[in-house]
Amino acid sequence: MHRYARTVHQRILLATRRYDPGGAFSLSSLAMPTKSMGGAAYAVGVPHCRHISTLQNRYFPLTTNRKEEKEQLKQASSSSSSFSTRTATSSYKRDPGLELTSTVSDPKEVPGPTPAVPSRAEQIRRLQQTTTAAKEEFDLVVIGGGATGAGIALDAASRGLKVACIERGDFASETSSRSTKLIWAGLKYMATASAALLSKNLFTNPRATIHDFVGEMEMVLECHRERKYMTLQQPHLCNWVPIAIPFHTWRVTPPPFGHWLFGFFPILAPLVMKFYDALSLFQCPPSYIMTPTKAKQIFPQLATQNMKYASVFYEAQHNDSRTNLAIAMTAAEHGAVIANYVEMQSAIRDDNDNPKKVVGVHALDRKTGKSFDIRGKKIVFAGGPFTDDLRNMEVAEGETATPAVQGAAGTHLVLPGYYCSSQVRVPFEI
Description:
With 430 residues, the protein is α/β, with parallel strands linked by helices. It is built from twelve helices and twelve strands.
């Protein structure tokens, strides 16, 4: 991460450390049932293990398929209109589920959470504020209230700029609440960097190979610094998660990363994990070795036959949604005018001097169905994967903006709590 970006990140975390609307909370990705496994409370039996870290699902009841779930969602969406005679007219192609939360409800005004943070109704009035001459102009208008958009608003407001930030859904309702929750310090990057250094490229192109290795390791060190900073500055939103890697053989074939040395990772794992701890100056809980007997107690489903041991190391975990909320509310505390359920409909252009210049946005309050204009000297699109859709609103009619976002697909599997112990996590082989 660039030094300036890191400074901004630290400023945001420092500002939000004392301001979190929910109080102390420790997030866990998996909830362990309170009753013992196999008890009468479970309609589904405990899955059995076929081999190392692979779970076999057995006797699972039939559930609705994806097509049926989509039909149910459509029916729920259509039935939701019965609760209100009018809905906000806007495109839902980016997020069909947003239609369920966009029903116009004319909410009553309630006080803000603290005297320093205005209510949503007051924020909307400030967005609509006008003078006798022209619309009020902001120094910066941020489109998107995720972690990035709220962070931009907080950084700009703390520097004395007049900032407006709008979010079409709720804060952290999109990408900012759909992460793995882990503050990963780069164990895999450390392995890929080492594999590249040990490859034949070291002899064919030594300068580039060493340069890439140093760059990767600098990124790993930066990840460790960021993880340490977040766990120290946000202890109420972060916790440590132990991760166990079971080994059933002393040599892995074929070797990972295509190098024979990595085939002996089961032997080298304890030393590698201690080195991983050292990169963070041992600020994390220490890694350790778990015996097969202990592993059988913690992971009853894990195949422990011929198991050598399990190597346990720690990664940090944080509540991404509440972090986003804390950043947004801290931005409001610093003077930013920030509101959720306000969507950008189109761009306002400078018709006098530069017709191509965007000087504001037409916005829609999804909760009242009223439209208004927000003018600003600078407009920032912080829509995450939807940024290109926003950029298409600023080009001339009939034109399409050059794509600037290269999306990366990822899959998260959400499993019942009995798949894994609440004490230690274990990676599954898919």
